[in-house]
Amino acid sequence: MERALSSDLPTPAPALLRRLPALLGEWLRNARTRRQLAELTSQQLADIGISPSERIREISKPFWR
Questions:
Q1: Which pTM was predicted?
Q2: Cα–Cα dist 59/36, whole Å
Q3: What share of the chain is helix, strand, coil (3-state, %, to 5)?
Q4: How large is the C-alpha radius of gyration of the chain?
């Protein structure tokens, strides 16, 4: 069995590395806003036009979506 040399290993695309800070920021924002949405009362949800089922659907999403 051959061992792969470090130069044979795939490297991340430069475009992905440039996008990484923005992507991490988006993930943090998603997590923060979903946490805030989870803390709203039913009256606050009604004020902004979000139903309880819409809230559940949104806060159930993983942070990367």
A1: 0.70
A2: 9
A3: 70, 0, 30
A4: 20
